[in-house]
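Collaborator request, handled under Task 6.
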Amino acid sequence: MSDLLQRLRGRGWRLTSQRRVVAEVLDGDHTHLTADEVHARAVERLPEISRATVYNALGELVSLGEVAEVSTDGRAKRYDPNAHQPHQHLLCSGCGLIRDVHPAGDPLADLPEAGRFGFTVSEVEVTYRGLCPACA
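Structure tokens returned to the collaborator:
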């Protein structure tokens, strides 16, 4: 059983066949699929699953904190199943592909106290932009 499915079971989330398929589609290589991409892959496994069911399941997973919603550059929202591991994102400016990256060091340490304007920083988001091999 996948890590995401185990966490959902542990939280008592009712795993209907539709919800299970959505979770299975999200689990894996962390490529941050759009809702439409999740639906297309879910239909391959469960042809009767509706788009509304996929959107509802994604909304519930985000509310539970098991999946993160990633929005970049006005593009469609993408869903990141790697919500529990600290990481940054690498974004293709061409096709919008997003990959998780784990740079060395602490991004918060790169922001000096003087540059924080008195803020107590609780979270850091860094996005690296460029072109993926397919778009380069």
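The cover message to the collaborator said: "Residues 51-64 form the longest helix (14 residues). The CA atoms of residues 30 and 66 lie 13 Å apart. Please let us know whether this matches your experimental observations."
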